[in-house]
Amino acid sequence: MQKNLVIVESPAKAKTIEKFLGNDYTVLSSFGHIRDLKKKGFGIDVANNYTPDYEIPSDKIKLVNELKKKAKESEIVWLASDEDREGEAIAWHLYEVLGLN
């Protein structure tokens, strides 16, 4: 079992950060956003207090499955997103989708 998994937004950041961390860390990229509001339909459930209805785009399914697998194999998962609203949104979606709660 690997000890630490660090997930960042971009693959370039992943390569750079991995150089600074030791062997106890694996650094992967989410390649930005991993899910979005559903394209078909309205995207929110109006009858259920306007709850957003998210989906993982088909081009991200393989990546998300790999991140889930690595997260389950790790003792600690670090979500190292950018310090802006978009970064916070990406980290929140990762938290939800990877079942880190």
Q: What gyration radius follows from the Cα positions, in whole Å? A: 15 Å
Which band does the percent of strand residues land in? 25-35%
Low-confidence stretches: none
Order of helices and strands: EHEEEEEHEH
How would you describe this structure to a colleague?
This protein is an alpha/beta fold. The protein is 35% helix and 26% strand. The protein has helices spanning 11-20, 61-72, 85-97; strands at residues 2-8, 25-29, 36-37, 44-45, 51-52, 54-55, 74-79. A three-stranded parallel beta sheet has the order 2-1-7. Strand 1 (2-8), helix 1 (11-20) and strand 2 form a beta-alpha-beta unit. The longest helix is centred in the last third of the chain and has 13 residues, at 85-97. The two termini are 20 Å apart. The relative contact order is 0.23. The model has no long low-confidence stretch (mean pLDDT 93).
In short:
The protein has 101 residues and is of the alpha/beta class. It has three helices and seven strands; from the N terminus they run E-H-E-E-E-E-E-H-E-H. The chain starts with a strand and ends with a helix.
Secondary-structure topology with pairs:
Blueprint: E1 2-8, H1 11-20, E2 25-29, E3 36-37, E4 44-45, E5 51-52, E6 54-55, H2 61-72, E7 74-79, H3 85-97
Parallel strand pairs: 1-2, 1-7
Antiparallel strand pairs: 3-6, 4-5
Summary tags:
three-stranded parallel sheet; 3 helices; 101 residues; two-stranded antiparallel sheet; elongated; alpha/beta
